[in-house]
Amino acid sequence: MSTQTAWPTGVIARYLTVGGATVDLTHRLTVHNPPKPFATLASCAGCPATEEVSHYRTNWGSEEHNPEAADADARIWAQSHAETCRALPKPTA
Predict the structure, then answer these.
(1) Which of 6, 91, 85, 3 is nearest to 47 (CA)?
(2) C-alpha angle 76/12/28, rounded to 5°?
(3) Which residues, 6+ apart, have CB-to-CB distance to 28 below 8 Å?
């Protein structure tokens, strides 16, 4: 029986790759105070693959802030990557 460990701070979703690594989704934050998310980042802990999806979309010439759509697009990429990535998790020690 395996035990679950807590997700790192800031991880909003996690996918397990076929190689046993994880693909984590986090929000990229601005340097403003308070920080504001401007993108969703999907990064694989087993290989160098990443995907960053902006929270800002241009729609008919105007820019709109749509973090839910960015999260959805990042989740699709993360799921697809996790289904095919065979990289092993990086050792912790």
Answers:
(1) 85
(2) 90
(3) 37, 38, 39, 40, 41, 52
Position 3 in a domain: no
d(CA 78, CA 42): 6
56 is in which domain, residue-wise?
11-84
Closest CA to 49 of 10, 3, 72, 83: 83
For residue 80, is it within any domain?
yes
Write out the chain's pLDDT in tens, 93 residues: 456 678 999 999 999 999 999 999 999 998 887 888 999 999 999 999 999 999 998 888 888 989 999 999 999 999 999 999 999 887 776
